[in-house]
Amino acid sequence: MRVIVFFDLPSVTSAELREYRHFRKSLLKNGFIMMQESVYSKLALNQTVADAIMKNVRDFKPPAGIVQMLTVTEKQYQKIEYVVGTKSSIVIDSTDRLVIV
Fold first, then answer.
1. Which of 6, 33, 62, 92 is the most interior residue, by most CB within 10 Å?
2. Which among 25, 7, 101 has a CA at the least distance from the CA of 63?
């Protein structure tokens, strides 16, 4: 499973920028990878783990803006169609539990 987080946060004032940076750093610290601007994803082994990940994101959410979360299976995630652009070769996209590069 994948937990995908979409967010649109205000970043006009210095306090809003600080909240934006804190939220983004918290996502990265918790193992999320950036799919594109303001879209991050994390692999979860099952629904229980996905629920815990989502609860964790709710705990450090910013006070303003929009944060949305979506859980999809690996089969659904692999059906992503790239209309413009190409798949990043930096990110390893595999269903294997252990990947050695």
1. 62
2. 7
47 has a pLDDT exceeding 90 = yes
Number of helices (H), then strands (E), belonging to the chain: the values are 3, 4
Q: Which residues pair with 66 in a beta bridge?
A: 8
CA distance 27 to 21: 10
- Whether 13 shows a pLDDT value over 80: the answer reads yes
Q: Is 70 exceeded by the pLDDT of residue 90?
A: no
Considering Cα of 85, then 82, then 97, then 57, what sign does the dihedral take?
A: positive
Reported pTM: 0.79
